[in-house]
Every structure is written in structure tokens, then in C-alpha cells.
Amino acid sequence: MRKQGDTLLVSCYELGHQPFQLASLYALLRQAGYNPAVVDTAVEPLSDETIRQARFVAISVPMHTALRLGEQIARRIRALNAETHICFYGLYASLNEEYLLQGLIDSAIGGEFEEPLLKLLAALEDGASASIPGVSTPQHSSQPWLQRAPLVQPRRSVLPALDRYARLELNGATRIVGYTETTRGCKHTCQHCPITPIYRGRFFAIPADLALADIRAQVKQGAQHITFGDPDFFNGPAHAMRITSALHREFPGISFDATIKIEHLLKHRHLLPELRANGCAFVVSAVESLNNDVLLRLEKGHTSADIVEAFALMEEAGIALRPSLMPFSPWETLESYLQLLSFFEERHFIEHVDPVHFSIRLLIPPGSALLNAPDAWQWLGKLDPAAYSYRWQHPDPRMDNLQQAISVLVEKAQRAQADPIETFFHIKALAFASAGREMCLSCSINDYGKRKVIPHLTETWFC
Predict the structure, then answer these.
(1) Less crowded by CB within 10 Å, the N or C end of the chain?
(2) Cβ 125 vs Cβ 6: under 8 Å
(3) Do the Cβ atoms of 24 and 152 come closer than 8 Å?
(4) pLDDT, tens digit, for every residue of 115-132?
(5) Does residue 201 have a pLDDT over 60?
(6) Where does residue 100 rank: exposed (0-12), middle (13-18), buried (19+ CB within 10 A)?
(7) Cα separation values, 14 from 60, 62, 220, 269, 383, Å
(8) For 418-456, how does the pLDDT look when each residue is reduced to its tens digit (9 = 90+)?
(9) H/E element holding 147?
(10) Long-range Cβ pairs for the range 243-247 (8 Å, 24+)
(11) What is the structure's pLDDT at 461?
(12) What is the pLDDT of residues 351-386, one digit of tens each?
């Protein structure tokens, strides 16, 4: 499999970024003597000829959307090239391996996938059939591989140019965005997070010199802003600050964003001014809900009061806080959802949130920690393997109906590139109607007043 095209690496979706996992794996395989073809189907076509030539295909599935798209690609590959070995690797590969290995793919690798994937390739070349730690097959199930990966600097020259991906919108202008990671896994165990059943509270630091070399290469390719894609940038705050300080010294005009827990923003508040001085344009934080019962059940590590405090701290530091939300779960209520909307409207925070976040419904993948919730029997349904999630039903039917209506609304608004503020108030009108209340839509829009311009990426989907 060392001829050009015998091995094929495919990415389907990485939140509008040039795919880090593809660039990283490509570099490692080249170092090992392989010469894989690389295709990012988010921005370029995958030809029938490329599929027919491949003897081994590795498809990156780091998130739910990528898995959904990856399954479609795998079925196409299977139809065109029945003999090729198809491997899914990434977070959602292990979670859904039981379903995926029933005829769709040949192997699944989760956790730190690089070493198991290299061993799998070597075994296939040798015609070996022995089980490989970290690699699940129809004949052998393996736990996710959680040993430190043999990391090398990603090679991005084979990928589409950065200007074909999401941009940063900042102060009325757009910037080309690069992407890298400084850690993998997460030391926290939020109950709904898909990282929890895979890494179980562990994380691995990527050497600072590798992260900086990756940034340097992307700046040469035109990057003007860097997204740090760690599940939590402050899993290792000293490590994170060393990297951002070095970034700012070498490239003082480059801005960046990162994902940081509310809990960490409060605990490490003394670092926020330095983070801003180093070029931080905004921080994404998984707020999820303002309902303290929901936050407790999810083991988020913060309360609604903490969220209010975090917004104040970030405003004082001059860094925009962009919350991600998951407002539809079995424990959210219609009243608490209305309170969530009021929070963003009354504090003039609507611009901080992409409208899609007001529609997000809890996903419960196989292996989720939520399967062990003491009250799961009250709301948890059967596994729907083709949807990669357990079904669940809200005890208040109005909430399920509202979520479906809002999902349709925001998808239409996204396609039409509608005004996000107007979309928010259409969401509010749907919520009011669910509660049997009336509101003046045009009055609400007109009364909102002057709008803020918050730094954000042009890619709005977060799952």
C-alpha cells in the first residue's frame, strides 16, 4: 500500500476548518514510507477513479456530522470498490463501532488513533489476521487506544488552500483562518460529552514546538487567525499560555480563538488580560443551559451565576465570549427555555450566539455516561444505531415540538442568510406560542436597539 493512491485519507467535515486530523495522519504515514492520496470532501470532490484505486481508506470521524457524512462516503466506496479496507478513525468511530462494523466498514479506531492505524496498515500488508490493540473489527472489539501518539508536524501542502475554508469576521473585515490543537482529550467528564466515554478524564499535551511549527506553516500559507481546537484550551493553562505568548512574539498581528470552560475562565481569571494581549479575539465556552438542574445533571462544573460572572469577566478583559448551547434535554423546561432567551435579550447578548444553538437537542451516543443516570428509565428510549444515538422523549411534549419547529426555522434562516437578530426573535415567538403567550415580533426586533459586532467564524455549526 505504498504506491500513490493505494492508501486514501478522507475528511468529511471539521467545523469549516482545514482538517487537522488529515494533515497530521498524512505526515505520519509519509514518515513511515506510505504515499497516501488525501481528499477533503467538505470542499473538493472524491472521484470514482480515486476510490477504485484505493486498497485502504481511512475516513476521519471526529464528530457527529462527520460520521453522518462519512457513512454516505463509505457506502459509495463499498459500492465502487468492494475489496478495499475501510477504516473509520476518530472520536465517533469507537462510539458507534458495533453498528458500523456490521458490513459498512472493516475497522474502527478511537482515542489516540495514529499508532493503531500504522499497525493495522502493516498487518494488512503482511496478510496478518491477529488482533491489534486499539483496532476494532467484526471479529475483535478493542478499547480506544489511550497511549501517547507518535506525533509529527502536520503536512498541509496536500490539502486545499486555507482560503477555501471558514473565515473570521472581525471589525467589518474577514481573515483567513488556520487551525491547530495543543491538547487531545479532556480532564473533565461532562456527562453528555462524547469525549468522556473515550478518554475518561485523560488528556495529552501536544509539544509546543509542534503546535508552533504547524501555526508557522499555516501563516506562510496565508493564515491571519488561528483557531485552537482543543476540547478545553485551559486543560493545561501554563502550556496554553506558553504557546499563545510565543505566537504573539513571532506573529504579533495574528489573532486567535479557543474553547475554554466557564469553570476555567473563573479559576484562571488572572490570565485573561494576558490572553487578550496575546491576540485572543473570542472564546467559545460550552454554557449549555442556564437551568441549574440541567447543569448539575450534566456535571458541567458551573452554575447560572457563574455564567453571569464569566460574561462580566470577559467583557472587562475585552474578549468576546461566544457560548455554545444545548437547550433541549429531558430536564430543561419550557419556562427555563424562555428564561434562557430572556437572558440573552435583556443583557444584549444575542449577537454572541449563532441562532442554531437555540435549537440543539441532546445527543446520547452509545457508551454515553448519561446511560447510567439514575432516572434514565423515565426518559431514555431505545438505541437508534443508524442515527448514532439513543432516542429520548421529553416529559413535556411541547418541548419536543418546539425543538423541531426551531430546527426547521434556523435551517431555513441559515440558507437564506437571514439576519440573526430577526431569527432570534422568530425563535422567541415560537417559544411564546408554545407557552400560550403572545408577543409582538416587529416590536421586539425594533426595541432591541443598536447591534454589536462580535468576532466570529463564518462556520456556524458546532457538532
Answers:
(1) C
(2) no
(3) yes
(4) 999 999 999 998 876 799
(5) yes
(6) buried
(7) 9, 8, 21, 30, 26
(8) 999 999 999 999 999 999 999 998 888 888 888 888 999
(9) none
(10) 243/182, 243/208, 243/211, 243/212, 244/275, 244/278, 244/279, 244/280, 245/274, 245/278, 246/208, 246/212, 247/212, 247/215, 247/278, 247/279
(11) 64
(12) 999 999 999 999 999 999 999 998 898 999 999 999
The contacts of residue 89 (CB under 8 Å, 6+ apart) are 21, 25, 58, 59, 60, 61, 108, 109, 110, 113, 117
Q: Is 405 exposed, middle or buried (0-12, 13-18, 19+ CB in 10 A)?
A: middle
Confidence band of 5 (pLDDT split at 50, 70, 90): confident
The boundaries of every CATH 3.80.30.20 domain in the chain are 162-457
**Boundaries of CATH 3.40.50.280 in the chain?**
7-130
What is the phi-psi region of residue 341: left when phi exceeds 0, alpha when psi lies from -120 to 50, beta otherwise? alpha
* E strands present in 265-341: 280-288, 320-325
- Could you tell me where the DSSP H helices lie in 328-396? 334-346, 376-379
Instruction: Return the ∠ at Cα 247 (arms to 244 and 252), rounded to 5°.
Output: 115
Predicted TM-score of the model (pTM): 0.95
Classified by CATH at the fold level, domain 7-130 comes out as Rossmann fold (3.40.50)
Across the range 9-29, mean pLDDT stands at 94
Taking only Cα atoms into account, the Rg of the chain, rounded to an integer number of angstroms, comes to 22
Grid look-up 504547524 returns 214
Q: Are 280 and 318 in contact (CB under 8 A)?
A: no
Length of the chain in residues, anyone? Answer: 463
**Is the domain defined by 162-457 classed in CATH 3.80.30.20?**
yes
pLDDT(462) > 60: no
Instruction: Give the whole-angstrom CA distance, residue 218 versus residue 255.
Output: 13
Coil, strand, or helix at residue 240?
A: helix
Task: Output the nine-digit C-alpha cell for 425.
Answer: 426573535
The 10s digit of each residue's pLDDT in 314-327 is 999 999 999 999 99
Query: Dihedrals φ, ψ of 283, to 5°?
Result: -125, 130
Whether the CB-CB separation of 6 and 55 falls below 8 Å is answered with: yes
pLDDT, one tens digit per residue, over 51-101 is 999 999 999 999 999 999 999 999 999 999 999 999 999 999 999 999 999
Q: Three-state SS for 230?
A: coil
Hey, which bits of 158-268 come out as E strands?
167-170, 173-180, 183-185, 203-205, 225-228, 255-259
pLDDT at 138: 95
